[in-house]
Amino acid sequence: MTAQSETPRRGFPPWALPLVLGILVGVGLGKRWQESPLSTVTVHLSGALDESGAFTYPIGTRLGEAIDAVGVGESADLDRVNLAEVLFDGQRVIIPERPPEGSQPEMNVFLPPITTTTAPANSGALINLNFATLEDLDTLPGIGPSKAQAIIDWRESHGGFQRIEDLLEVTGIGQKTLERLTPLVTISPP
Known about the structure:
Layout: H1 16-34, E1 40-47, E2 53-58, H2 63-70, E3 92-95, E4 127-128, H3 134-138, H4 145-158, H5 175-181, E5 185-186
Parallel strand pairs: 1-3, 4-5
Antiparallel strand pairs: 1-2
């Protein structure tokens, strides 16, 4: 053995290169994931807008943001839609027009407050557990009216679902039901 003075090594430790490469690859995959169809929703907007058609937005976009992006027509009656509604994939939203000036609807006429449609279960669109109605949930396999109500009750008492796996906390839903429902449902912020 020769006597050499030990000098500290400069540079990266041997484990650093794989770590840096892993991070760089992960960032690249992360960017690709952000642009994937799973991170967006396509919505059909029509009615009293400057532009109508199918538009794609990031998951979590609210109706108000979407219609601002396409332009609101002068005759739009925005009091009859929920501008805070979170959009879901496959949704159709019709922005109504205000009644002509000078005409007033009769007091007994019902004006629907929301003109958006919900996604039927057989349309291929995922059912959002944080916004689904009892009727939407009832269309899922293994979910009848009582389990649908239990899902809604759990959602309301817990402030919404954070993960699909939260369904296991709902009375009457076990692992097998969860496995059947997972490809049919989604979660977006409540």
